[in-house]
Amino acid sequence: MRLAIRKTDTAYSRYRRAKAKWRCERCGAQHQENSGGLHCSHFIGRRNEATRFDDDNTFALCHGCHAYFTANPYEHTAWVEKKLGAVKYKALIVRSQFPVKRDDALTTIVIKELIKTL
């Protein structure tokens, strides 16, 4: 069963891809802003509210790299750990273990503030 995409997911995805300057963080391929070829990929799935909108848990990946990591989870894990470093990687895993109550109103405010920083 697919997880519903909320308005906050759409806004965060746009922010995360813009933060990466519309470039795949794995292969470096450049994408047009609205082409659909660049995804906001979650290392720990979107179902986990604690890390759903966490910059350490999300990456701008092209369709090919996203599909590759989905098919190769061990390589995905190694790539994320190398990209973040051991300390940030372990902290992300710890954050993912704590339950967080969904608050889309607050999340919308936070995402709007994040967009201003770009």
Count of the domains: 1
Overall mean pLDDT stands at 94
Question: Strand-and-helix sequence, N→C?
Answer: HEEHHHH
Strand order of the largest sheet: 1-2
The largest β sheet comes out as: 2 strands, antiparallel
Low-pLDDT windows of residues: none
Number of strands: 2
Give Rg in angstroms: 14 Å
The general outline is globular
What fraction, in percent, of the residue positions are helical? Answer: 40-55%
Strand content: 5-15%
Which structural class fits the helix and strand makeup? mainly alpha
Distance between the termini: 34 Å
Helix run count: 5
Give the structure's gist in a few sentences.
This protein is mainly alpha-helical. It contains five helices and two strands.
Structure report:
This protein is 49% helix and 8% strand. The protein has 118 residues and is mainly alpha-helical. It has one domain (7-107). It has a two-stranded antiparallel sheet.
